[in-house]
């Protein structure tokens, strides 16, 4: 489907956009001061109102007094109220203003052939523009501020020219359903001339970024702070300036693995000194078949490893199973729709050629109309499958990936604790060797003093030259080498062993402190993720997947009923002929 076909089928124009009766954007639509149009607008129909993955009527509520994290994280919210993390604004009485909408996506040129997309965001009668890198920055900050909270995903970071194939898997144009096809979608406008693959990426990003912000506005922990309000505040036009001037954000460690999970804004020196294990070093207690790969894992570690294995398997089944084959079916139906439309044209031409045949020409005309109607009904189904099945399934895959990130965070903290245990054992072994060397040195000193007391002398002078090639010469040569070694040992300023021992002992004390902190953090993280975050994710996941499959069944049933009526009508014409 081309841009022309979109416009001819009832797309909205870019002069003005006004709220519609269903809370969407309808009619004729620009954003006023929200953005300047560049070139011909491409109308991006994004979200259907009955889509279960779209959050409707959610508000940015201020926390109740005394509210805090449940379970082990109760102390985190108090200190997060300072600085950047001030209480958010009060809840608006207008429900429709309680959720985010992305009204517009504008292609901006940076010069030298480079460009990027800015997204015009509407929230509570305020409009602000953000680019993808600013969403990415916000999410990274949230992961540090709320390391034990499942932060919603954002779409993958890919260039405009490379994204189309990865998201659609083909060159099918079905991603641009017209309003005439029956898709009651809210509208966002893409300003600027962009190709089809870039349209796919922009539409996908608009959906994911809208969901990202709305999910954050529903998160009790995140909304106890003002960070989302700051991100959506038009007065903060330059998000990078907000980050660099915030003492709270600047004080955060570079890695979430060095944050205090209960209060990341109050990271202790013990946390700051924690090692950062590489991702490859995280232990795998479960193999691909779910069987333990460790000889003596603890019961708690085995339990969490089973959870990790189950979540990873769920994500794989969803991504490489349901989502993959749903996209394939949608592409196949799109191709079938095009074949039906072509067949309709062929029957119509044949009917014209057989116009003198009377009944045959009339029957061919009915057959042409039936195929044309079948193509239209199938086009309607394809649009619904793409926007209300495939896109929500894609989002479900991303959400499952975010849950896996949370599990991975716990696994890396587990690896961090193991690194400290191994480092402690190594330092204790080194200390033992130093102490043994110190004892040996004392024994040697006592022996030397004893020999000197008995009048024994150690001659370090060069021996008399002996003729070469004699046994005596070889003996003197060896003695000379030994004397040189002794001289070097005497003149070498070796560090005092006592200083080395003291340094290692101090290192051991620091490692023990870090190990205590790491073990305590791991207990809190395990309990919070296992008992709070994952159960909430599982509940929401099951409901969303249920709604997707329920919609899928409904769409297929409606399509089958309409398609059956078309061919029943054709049979009736045949019987009457």
- Provide the β-strand percentage band: 5-15%
Q: How many domain regions?
A: 2
Straight-line N-to-C gap: 36 Å
Largest sheet: 5 strands, mixed
Number of helices: 13
The CATH architecture assignment of the largest domain turns out to be 2-Layer Sandwich
How are the strands of the largest sheet arranged?
A: 3-7-4-5-6
Within CATH, the superfamily of the largest domain carries the name: Phox-like domain
Structure in words:
- The chain has 2 domains: 1-267, PX Domain, CATH 3.30.1520; 290-457 and 521-577, Arfaptin homology (AH) domain/BAR domain (Substrate Binding Domain Of Dnak, Chain:A, Domain 2, Up-down Bundle), CATH 1.20.1270.60.
- The strands form 2 sheets. A 5-stranded mixed beta sheet has the order 3-7-4-5-6. Strands 1-2 form a two-stranded antiparallel sheet.
- By secondary structure, it is an alpha+beta fold.
- Helix 10 (299-353) packs antiparallel against helix 11 (359-453) and helix 11 (359-453) runs antiparallel to helix 13.
- The chain contains 13 helices and 7 strands.
- Strand 4 (101-111) and strand 5 (114-123) form a beta hairpin.
Short description:
With 577 residues, the chain is α+β, with helices and mostly antiparallel strands. The chain has 13 helices and 7 strands. Strand 5 (114-123) and strand 6 (126-131) form a beta hairpin.
Indicate the topology.
Layout: H1 3-8, E1 18-19, E2 25-26, E3 42-48, H2 76-79, E4 101-111, E5 114-123, E6 126-131, H3 132-145, H4 163-168, E7 185-191, H5 196-217, H6 227-231, H7 239-245, H8 247-250, H9 269-272, H10 299-353, H11 359-453, H12 471-491, H13 497-576
Parallel strand pairs: 4-7
Antiparallel strand pairs: 1-2, 3-7, 4-5, 5-6
Helix pairs in contact: 10-11, 11-13
């Amino acid at each position: 489907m081309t841009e022309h076909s979109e416009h001819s089928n009832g797309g909205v124009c870019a002069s003005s956009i006004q709220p519609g009766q269903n809370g969407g954007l309808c009619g004729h639509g620009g954003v006023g001061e929200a953005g300047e149009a560049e070139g011909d607008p491409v109308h991006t129909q994004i979200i259907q109102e009955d889509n279960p993955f779209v959050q409707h009527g959610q508000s940015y509520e201020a926390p109740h007094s005394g509210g805090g994290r449940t379970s082990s994280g109760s102390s985190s919210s108090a200190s997060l109220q300072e600085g950047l993390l001030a209480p958010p604004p009060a809840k608006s009485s207008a429900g429709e203003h309680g959720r985010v909408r992305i009204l517009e996506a504008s292609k901006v040129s940076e010069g030298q052939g480079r460009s990027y997309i800015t997204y015009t965001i509407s929230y509570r009668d305020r409009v602000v523009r953000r680019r993808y890198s600013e969403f990415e920055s916000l999410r990274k900050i949230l992961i540090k501020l709320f390391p034990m909270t499942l932060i919603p995903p954002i779409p993958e970071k890919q260039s405009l020219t490379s994204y189309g194939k990865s998201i659609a898997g083909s060159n099918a144009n079905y991603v641009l359903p017209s309003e005439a096809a029956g898709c009651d979608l809210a509208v966002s406008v893409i300003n600027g001339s962009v190709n089809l693959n870039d349209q796919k990426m922009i539409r996908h990003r608009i959906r994911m970024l809208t969901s990202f912000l709305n999910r954050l506005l529903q998160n009790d922990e995140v909304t106890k702070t003002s960070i989302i309000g700051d991100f959506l505040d038009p007065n903060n036009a330059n998000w990078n300036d907000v980050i660099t001037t915030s003492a709270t954000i600047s004080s955060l460690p570079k890695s979430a693995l060095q944050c205090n999970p209960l209060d990341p804004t109050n990271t202790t020196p013990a946390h700051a000194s924690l090692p950062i294990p590489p991702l490859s070093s995280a232990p795998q207690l479960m193999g691909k078949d779910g069987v333990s790969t460790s000889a003596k894992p603890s019961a708690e570690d085995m339990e969490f490893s089973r959870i990790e294995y189950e979540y990873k398997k769920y994500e794989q089944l969803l991504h490489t199973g349901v989502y993959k084959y749903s996209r394939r079916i949608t592409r196949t139906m799109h191709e079938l729709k095009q074949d039906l439309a072509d067949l309709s044209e062929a029957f119509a031409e044949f009917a014209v050629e057989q116009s003198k045949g009377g009944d045959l020409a009339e029957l061919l005309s009915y057959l042409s109309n039936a195929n044309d109607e079948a193509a239209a009904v199938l086009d309607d189904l394809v649009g619904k499958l793409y926007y209300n099945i495939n896109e929500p399934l894609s989002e479900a895959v991303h959400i499952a990936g975010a849950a896996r990130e949370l599990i991975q965070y716990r696994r890396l903290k587990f690896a961090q604790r193991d690194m400290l245990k191994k480092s402690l054992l190594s330092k204790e072994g080194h200390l033992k060797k130093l102490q043994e060397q110190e004892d040996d040195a004392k024994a040697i000193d006592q022996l030397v003093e004893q020999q000197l007391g008995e009048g024994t002398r150690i001659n370090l002078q060069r021996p008399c030259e002996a003729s070469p090639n004699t046994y005596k010469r070889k003996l003197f040569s060896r003695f000379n080498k030994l004397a040189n070694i002794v001289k070097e040992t005497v003149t070498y300023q070796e560090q005092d062993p006592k200083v080395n021992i003291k340094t290692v002992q101090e290192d051991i004390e620091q490692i023990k402190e870090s190990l205590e902190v790491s073990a305590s953090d791991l207990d809190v993280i395990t309990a919070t993720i296992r008992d709070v975050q994952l159960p909430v994710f599982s509940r929401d996941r099951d409901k969303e997947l249920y709604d997707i499959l329920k919609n899928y069944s409904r769409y297929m049933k409606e399509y089958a009923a309409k398609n059956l009526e078309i061919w029943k009508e054709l049979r009736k014409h045949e019987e009457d002929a």
